[in-house]
Design brief:
Elements (H helix, E strand, L loop, with lengths): L2 H24 L2 H21 L4 E9 L12 H5 L6 H12 L2 H11 L3 E5 L6 E2 L6 E5 L11 E7 L4 E6 L4 E6 L3 E7 L4 E10 L11 E6 L2 H11 L1 E4 L7 E8 L2 H59 L9 H33 L15 H22 L6 H45 L5 H35 L5 E9 L8 H26 L16 E6 L16 H16 L7 E7 L6 H14 L4 E5 L7 H4 L8 H6 L5 H4 E3 L6 E4 L8 H5 L2 H10 L5 E5 L8 H5 L5 E7 L9 H8 L6 E8 L20 H6 L7
Parallel strand pairs: 14-21, 15-19, 15-20, 16-18, 16-19, 20-21
Antiparallel strand pairs: 1-12, 1-13, 2-3, 2-10, 4-9, 5-6, 5-10, 6-7, 8-9, 11-12, 17-18
Helix pairs in contact: 2-12, 5-6, 5-7, 7-11, 8-10, 8-11, 9-10, 13-14
C-alpha cells in the first residue's frame, strides 16, 4: 500500500468512526426522547410543587462620623495602620447589621417565630401580615423563646372550629372567642395553656371548610435561618458606604418588614451608643463642675474675709493705672492656667480609663488635634462594644480594635503631655512678664497686692466654671438631637416576578438532563462492555473477515433449505461467495475447517448451514463432525446418532463408506457424524485412520466441511488442522470477551491454523451493526413510530 492510499484509508476510517459514534447514540433515540419527556414532566411537577421565592432588597447609606477640623492630620496614621481605615469601619458596620443581637430583636418584634398557613395543594400557603385567625394565651404569653409547637384550626362555621394537634388528633369542637385548655408543644416538651382563638374579620374571604395551620418555632432557630439568608454587600467594590440588604423570602411582605425593621433597629442601636457618649460626657462635666463650685466658693470666702479684715472697699482704685497695662497679660495667663487644668484632668482620665470605657467628649481643650483624637477613640470604643455584644474578646476584630485603642491612648497621652509642656512654658513666660509689671507697682500697698492674687485665683476658677457649664449645656443639647446612623436610600421592595422556581431554567435543565442521563448511561455501558459486537472490533488482528451471520430467535433458521429467503440464508450465500475467493480453483476435495474460541459460539451451526448452502447450490458436499467431545450435528439435523468418526477409528473393520450418510432432504449433502463419545478424543484424532478418511473422500466431494472442537478449550482441532485448506474461525457477537481475541490473533501469527479467516456470528443488524443487505426485497409494514425510530440496513 502506497502512502496516498494509506492516507485515504485513514481519512475514511476517521469518517466512519465519527459516523459510528453518532449512530451509536442515535439508535437509542427513543430512550433520549423518553428521558427528555420524563425530566420535563418532573420539572413541571417541581415548578408546581415548589414554594415560590421572591427577592426583597433595600439600600442604605452609612453616614460619616463627625470629625474634628484637623482630622486630616490623622490620615497619615491611618495609612500606617495605627487607626481604623474606612474599609474596616464599613466591614464592622456590616457585621453589626448581620449580628444575632439585632436579628433577635427584629424576629421578636415582628413575631416571625409564629407562622400562619392555610392548607392547600400542592403546598400550604403562608399569610402575613393579614392573618386568617388570631390566638392569645389567657393571662400569659408563650413560655420561653425555645418553645415550639404546631396545631391546626379546622373552621366548621363562622362561630365554631375544630382544634387539632400536629398528628390531626381532634380535641373537640370549640367556639371562637371561647377560652379552652389546649395541650401544646412537642415530644420533648408540652404545656397546657388557656387559649382563645378568634377569626380575623378583615381577612377578606370566608374560611369555612378550610384548615389553618399555626406553627411556632424557637426564636433562635428562626434567627439563624434569617442570618444565613440575609446578604449585605457594598453597591460596588470601591470604598462605597452604600449597602444593599437583600433576602429571599416566600412571602414578600415578610421580607420587606424584616429589612425595614432591621434598619430601624440598627439606627436605634446607633442612637443609643451616641447617647451613651453624651451621657458619659455630661456625668464627667457634672462631677468637675461640682468640684470647681467648691473651690470657687472657698476663694470667694477668702476674698470676703480679706476685705473685712483690711476694711477694703475698692481694691482697683490704687492700681487702675498699672492694671490697664497688664490686663492683656493677665487674660492670657488665666486662659493658659485654665487649659493646664483641663489638660491635667484629661491626663488623669486617660491614665485611669480601662479598655472599653469612653473618654469625656470636648471638655474645652483648645487643641483641635486632641479633640479629634478623643472623638476617634470614642467611636472605636462604641464599635468594639457593639461587636462584643454578639461576639467575644478573642474575636480577631475585637483584638484588632483593642490594639488600635492602645495606640490611640498612647498617642493621646503624648499629645496631652506635649500640650501641657507647651502651656507651662507659656505660663512661665507670662508669669515672668507679670513679675516685671509687679516690680513697677512696688509702691502699691501690700494688701492690694495680696488681694490681687486672690482675685486672680477667683477669676481663673470662675472662667473655668463658666466654661464647663457651657460645655455641659452643649452635651445636653447633643444628647437631645438624635440622628440616624444609616440613611435609607430605598425602602425594602420586592422585584416583580419570583426568583425561584424559574420555569425557563428548570425546563432547560430538564432538557439537558434528559439528554445527558441516557448519554452517560450509554457511554458507561459501552465503557464497561468488553464483548465483541461487530467487525470493527476484529480489525486490529489483521485476519481476513469473511462475513457475518445475523442473530435469529427463530428455531426454523437452524438449517437453511432450498428457496429460503431469510436473513440467515442470505448470510450463508454471501459467506459461500466469499469462500470461493479464498480457496484454490481445484474441483474436488476443498476442505474447510470450522472452529471457535469456546463452546456456544455457533461453529457447528455455521458449518452445518454452509454445507447446506453449498449442497443446495449444486456442489457435492460432505460434512464431517470432528468435535468428538460435544457432538451437535445429529441434534441440529434431527437424526439418530449412528456410527461415525470415533467408531471408524476404533474399529479397523469399518470402511469410510460405512459411516457416510446421505441427507434425506438436501440433495448433494452427505454426513459423517462423530459417533460414540470417546474418553480419549485427542489420542483418537492422532490415529492414522483419520488420514484414511480425508484421503478417501477428497476425490468424491467438491467441498469437505469439518466441524471441530473449540481451540480455546482443547487441542483436538490442532490434530486435524493440517487437512484444512481454509480455517473459518467463528466468533459470536455479544458473547465473546474482547480479551479472548488474543487467542485467534496468536494462532494466526504462529500459523497454527492454515489460511485463517473470521466469521462473526449472531450480529444484531437492527442495532446498526454492519450488514450485507440481508432481507433485500422484502416488504414489511411498520407502524409510524417504528418507522421513525428504526434504522434502515445498509445495502451492498
Amino acid at each position: 500500500m502506497n502512502k496516498s492510499e494509506k492516507i485515504l484509508e485513514d481519512n475514511l476510517d476517521d469518517s466512519i468512526n465519527m459516523k459510528e459514534i453518532f449512530e451509536k447514540y442515535f439508535k437509542h433515540i427513543k430512550w433520549f426522547v423518553f428521558s427528555v419527556l420524563l425530566f420535563i414532566s418532573l420539572a413541571f411537577i417541581k415548578i408546581r410543587s415548589e414554594i415560590p421565592q421572591y427577592k426583597v432588597s433595600g439600600v442604605i447609606l452609612i453616614k460619616e462620623n463627625e470629625k474634628g477640623s484637623s482630622i486630616g492630620n490623622l490620615e497619615s496614621f491611618e495609612n500606617l495602620g495605627l487607626f481604623g481605615s474606612e474599609t474596616n469601619r464599613l466591614e464592622n458596620e456590616i457585621q453589626i447589621l448581620k449580628s444575632r443581637r439585632l436579628m433577635t430583636k427584629v424576629v421578636k418584634e415582628l413575631e416571625f417565630n409564629i407562622n400562619y398557613f392555610i392548607e392547600d395543594s400542592p403546598y400550604d400557603k403562608e399569610y402575613y401580615p393579614n392573618f386568617p385567625i388570631t390566638f392569645d394565651f389567657v393571662g400569659d404569653t408563650l413560655i420561653g423563646d425555645d418553645f415550639s409547637t404546631l396545631f391546626k384550626i379546622r373552621i366548621l362555621s363562622d362561630t365554631r372550629f375544630l382544634f387539632l394537634n400536629a398528628e390531626d388528633a381532634s380535641y373537640g369542637s370549640k367556639a371562637f372567642g371561647e377560652t379552652f385548655v389546649a395541650e401544646l408543644g412537642n415530644e420533648e416538651r408540652s404545656i397546657r395553656k388557656d387559649l382563645v382563638v378568634n377569626l380575623n374579620p378583615n381577612f377578606g374571604r370566608s374560611l369555612v371548610g378550610e384548615t389553618v395551620i399555626i406553627s411556632v418555632y424557637p426564636v433562635d432557630r428562626v434567627v439563624s435561618s434569617y442570618m444565613k439568608r440575609l446578604e449585605i454587600e457594598p453597591i460596588n467594590e470601591r470604598m462605597s458606604k452604600v449597602l444593599i440588604l437583600s433576602l429571599n423570602e416566600s412571602v414578600k411582605q415578610k421580607g420587606i418588614s424584616l429589612i425595614n425593621n432591621l434598619i430601624e433597629q440598627y439606627n436605634a442601636d446607633g442612637i443609643t451608643d451616641k447617647n451613651l457618649v453624651a451621657q458619659n460626657t455630661t456625668d464627667f462635666l457634672d462631677l468637675r463642675i461640682g468640684l470647681i463650685e467648691t473651690e470657687l466658693a472657698a476663694i470667694e470666702l477668702t476674698a470676703e474675709q480679706f476685705r473685712t479684715k483690711n476694711k477694703m472697699i475698692d481694691v482697683n482704685t490704687g492700681s487702675s493705672i498699672y492694671l490697664h497695662s497688664s490686663s492683656a497679660n493677665e487674660s492670657e495667663l488665666v486662659d493658659s492656667n485654665t487649659q493646664i487644668q483641663l489638660v491635667n484632668l484629661m491626663i488623669d482620665e486617660v491614665g485611669s480609663i480601662r479598655t472599653g470605657e469612653l473618654l469625656p467628649g470636648n471638655v474645652g481643650i483648645a487643641d483641635p488635634t486632641i479633640i479629634s483624637m478623643i472623638t476617634q477613640y470614642n467611636n472605636l470604643v462604641l464599635q468594639r462594644n457593639r461587636i462584643l455584644k454578639s461576639s467575644s474578646e478573642i474575636n480577631p476584630i475585637i483584638i484588632n480594635i483593642d490594639s488600635q485603642l492602645e495606640n490611640y491612648k498612647s498617642n493621646l497621652s503624648n499629645s496631652l503631655n506635649n500640650q501641657k509642656s507647651s502651656l507651662e512654658i507659656k505660663v512661665g513666660t507670662l508669669t515672668t512678664q507679670s513679675s516685671k509689671i509687679s516690680s513697677r507697682i512696688a509702691s502699691v500697698p501690700k494688701n492690694e497686692r495680696e488681694f490681687k492674687d486672690i482675685v486672680r485665683q477667683q477669676e481663673t476658677k470662675n472662667a473655668l466654671y463658666l466654661f464647663l457649664l457651657q460645655k455641659r449645656e452643649e452635651s445636653v443639647l447633643s444628647n437631645a438631637v438624635n440622628v440616624d446612623k444609616a440613611k435609607v436610600i430605598d425602602n425594602a421592595y420586592s422585584k416583580p416576578g419570583k426568583i425561584s422556581p424559574k420555569k425557563s431554567t428548570n425546563l432547560l435543565g430538564a432538557i439537558i438532563l434528559g439528554i445527558l442521563v441516557p448519554f452517560i448511561v450509554i457511554y458507561v455501558r459501552d465503557l464497561l462492555d468488553t464483548k465483541v459486537h461487530d467487525e470493527k472490533d476484529l480489525r486490529k488482528m489483521g485476519i481476513p473477515f469473511i462475513g457475518d451471520v445475523p442473530f435469529s430467535k427463530n428455531k426454523g433458521d437452524l438449517l437453511i433449505t432450498n428457496n429460503d429467503t431469510s436473513n440467515i440464508a442470505e448470510a450463508f450465500r454471501y459467506l459461500r461467495t466469499n469462500i470461493g475467493f479464498m480457496l484454490d480453483r481445484k474441483e474436488w476435495g476443498k476442505t474447510i475447517l470450522f472452529t471457535s474460541t469456546q463452546s456456544g459460539e455457533g461453529k457447528t451451526f455455521a458449518a452445518l448451514n454452509l454445507a447446506s448452502s453449498l449442497a443446495i447450490s449444486g456442489k457435492k458436499t460432505l460434512l464431517i463432525a470432528m468435535d468428538l467431545r460435544v457432538p451437535k450435528i445429529a441434534k441440529y439435523m434431527d437424526v439418530d446418532e449412528v456410527k461415525g468418526v470415533s467408531n471408524f477409528i476404533k474399529d479397523n473393520e469399518l470402511r469410510v463408506r460405512d459411516i457416510i450418510n446421505k441427507h434425506a432432504e438436501i440433495e448433494n449433502l452427505s454426513l459423517i457424524l462423530s459417533g460414540d463419545i470417546p474418553p480419549n478424543p485427542v489420542e483418537l484424532l492422532m490415529s492414522k485412520r483419520v488420514d484414511e478418511i480425508f484421503e478417501e473422500v477428497k476425490n468424491d466431494y467438491e467441498f469437505i466441511i469439518v466441524d471441530s472442537a473449540p481451540v480455546g478449550m482443547v487441542t483436538d482441532t490442532f490434530q486435524i488442522s493440517r487437512f484444512a485448506e481454509l480455517t473459518v474461525y467463528v466468533i459470536k457477537a455479544n458473547f465473546l470477551d474482547k480479551r479472548m481475541l488474543h487467542i485467534p490473533d496468536k494462532l494466526n501469527r504462529q500459523n497454527k491454523l492454515s489460511n485463517m479467516c473470521l466469521l462473526l456470528n449472531g450480529t444484531d443488524h437492527s442495532k446498526g451493526t454492519y450488514g450485507y443487505g440481508y432481507g433485500y426485497g422484502e416488504k414489511k409494514k411498520k407502524r409510524f413510530f417504528k418507522n421513525l425510530f428504526s434504522r434502515k440496513a445498509a445495502t451492498l
